Records
---
Amino acid sequence: MPPLVEQLKGGLDAPICLTWELTYACNLACIHCLSSSGRRDPRELTGDECKAFIDELARLQVFYVNIGGGEPTIRPDFFEIVEHSVAQGVGVKFSTNGSQIDPVAARRLAGSNYIDVQISIDGANAFTNDAVRGVGSFATARRAMDNLAAANFGQFKISVVVTRENVDQLDDFEALALGYGAELRLTRLRPAGRGADSWDRLHPTNGQQRELYRWLVARPHVLTGDSFFHLSALGEALPGLNLCGAGRIVCLIDPVGDVYACPFVLHDDFKAGSVRDAGGFTSVWRESQLFLELRQPQSAGACASCGSFDSCQGGCMAAKFFTGLPLDGPDPECVWGNADEALALVGAKPSPGPGHSKPTPVALSRR
Amino acid sequence: MDSHAAYRLHPQVALRPEPFGALAYHYGNRKLVFLKTPTMVALVRSLADHGSLAEAFKAAAIPPSKHASYERALADLEASEIICAAAR
């Protein structure tokens, strides 16, 4: 029998890790937003459609769902959807900027054992954070954390996208999490959505990546969502499966019910179908052409001759796609610099599309 | 593991069949664990039907030469609270 990781590459009967963006509406306009969120989409799934989708996930024994957005708590039926999910045995972890987590909401969340809350910040202080997430967003997130702590919510998560500007604050993030008894979660900056425009100046330098790797190896308790498997080329593998799960164990449902291969490839090329299709999510997951292709053995391409391929698997498909690199070659952040030459020669990159950004330019503080 | 003791699937754990075996999810501690062979899945499911681990091994036709490796795997599952001691 082939090893487990090889079997996982061939796909599962249902995803393990499913991200569901509940709405494109958002009160912030983060410059690295993966889903280019801002305006609500009028075709958004209705409350009844959301509940029917949850019932389908329960039948598939998807044990938990990662809810995001946009800002999911902006939906007036947010709690109704979350509580329906938990009641069906589909646990919920949701990401929020914290703006709606007032003392009442915090107490309501504390009442359930199966709801996990993840508050996003992208700097350990207002100056660094607000440059990415907007003025006042750090104070808002801290207030939400204070409210959860006061409501005895228990262990929530503090979620950080690692950037060139905040990578020297990792110890500060850890101290902040420790102060709340919270878990720290670090994830990788992807050049998707509005991130396509900010990636060049925000993604960590190669030297910073090496520091980050050393920091993470020493802290296996820090969560990463399997985000940094491209760094495993540097030595000992980081905790996790260390593989691209797109369409194999992972997928994304967007607010209008479209199913994409992963949360970082909101692009037509990676759209497998819709939960509104006749066979529902189940047949998209099991039968869509795209997902069946992603479960075929992938060529190592230009990485075939590199001794690190077994460790890093060539890195992240989405990062390659949106930087205009071939999917069967090195990751743009290859720690050995194997993508540098190709990156310099890239002409046109795939456009992430207009998305749902608000039409008026948002004033951003620049450093 | 104590081969004379009885074990069971933890009441907060759900099993999801998969081609390789099963996924086990603990709703309390939120751990997700892979049961990597169909034999392991059948064994874990049958634990509660037997008064001891030794009886469960016998019923599942697991040869004595493999008991030690199964016990190690079951000890990991107990540490993750996927299985637990059953009251006799």
Note: The mean pLDDT of chain A is 94.
---
Amino acid sequence: MTAPLLTLSSVSKTFASGVSALSGIDLRVNAGEFVAILGASGCGKSTLLRLIADLSEPTSGTVQWSGAAHGATGRLGFVFQDATLMPWASAADNVYLPLRLAGLGRAEAAPRIAEALAAVELGDFAEAFPRELSGGMRMRVSIARALVTQPDVLLLDEPFAALDEPTRFKLNEDLLRLWRTRNLTVIFVTHSVFESVFLSQRVIVMSRRPGRVHADLPIDLPYPRDATLRMSAGFGAACHRVSEVLTRATGAEAA
Amino acid sequence: MSRREEPLGRVSRLLAPSVFGLLFLVAWEVLARVNQIPVYILPGPLLIAETLWTDGPSLLGSLWVTLQIAFAALIAAVILGLGLAIAMSRSRWIEASLLPYAVILQVTPVVAIAPLIIIWADDVFLSLLICAWIVAFFPIVSNTTLGLNSTDRGLDDLFRLYKATPGQTLRYLQLPTALPYFMAGLRISGGLALIGAVVAEFVAGTGGSETGLAFRILEAGYRLQIPRMFAALVLLSLAGIAIYAVLDRLSHLILRRWHESALPKDR
């Protein structure tokens, strides 16, 4: 058994205001895994993702990546809760941003931008501005931007929470396809039981105030997963099981 | 339900003020004639138009002098205002040290400081320029500073994630974010630069060949040439409207592809 790609050891985070967001988090993620972090709002799951991305420092504990290549963020892609695009830039320019910040010239970056946009089926919308795109398309641009640096790890923070259901289902399936074809390691934060079960191999259920890992549940459903899986009894049973754990995790101290 | 009726169409929006203005001018002319108000108190619009026609060429030269001051002041306000705003966004120390003085400069009436500046600056043009600049400077500084500090928090994170340098963050994130704010400041400053130039000219009261429009107004007042005074006033407000219109158009052209302010309202 190889060492996990990412190891969090008794990570805690207390904000300057004194609010304890996370407490004693232990978590291991292996290379190539698809892990969902599930919890009610306010359980610190976004904070956890920010710690993993090195956008925030833990108050105590460590976040470690195996292999020197990672230097924390070297090969990391991050998809934010809102699409978080630059409104003044076209889709292509938004996707270009990570490469531009790395010092790559536009001509040099062009094929990679085109490839990333094609991967999210937005090849024809390179010159469109964010306001001209639908919510789902904006999120696709955001994913293309995260993919353009060819990361090994993709972190997603409730990316599809604001989208309508058909769009969300479609993007879920597209994300699974990208995970498989690009050999990504994915950590996906969500508050949706169905989404977490549909996507991931493991669901980490969090309790809140302060955020802790309440349970680590394997999801033994076969891939590739698609629309038929959503109708299957196995999917329903898994959702039921995860849902019960989540209710216990959030209900324990909220009631 | 909106309390007001449907928004006006393009034609109505032009027609309504034109009709109102025309009615106002007709009423003015009629009142002036019926009451036989002396020309040195209130000339009628027709006489003013006639004076504008006859004195126009000489007044236009003076308008050009005033406009030169206003434009130079606006350009100086843009360069120094942007520079100061960027410096303040880079360093809390610079902001804490300089912002109070920018505010003091703004709240002190320019009429009150103008005599001092005129004494200190050797050149008349320069002293007028400084006065107009003082007035035009602050809206650009304060709006641009607000804009530079209004970056989207998600985008801030994104730039940090990709290890952007401070220069890159300024160029690719802060300056584009600040652009609509800067343009709003510029539209205010354009009008203020003209006002500043006129106020300074009133105080300076220069004679000789290089005389601005404000002094022409004073001069006409002394000589009781009230129609000429009105003609100069008309030119001045037309210049102010033109400056605003040009800057407004410029703002629209720059922001039309992405900013809410430049988007059509109906969807």
Note: The mean pLDDT of chain B is 88.
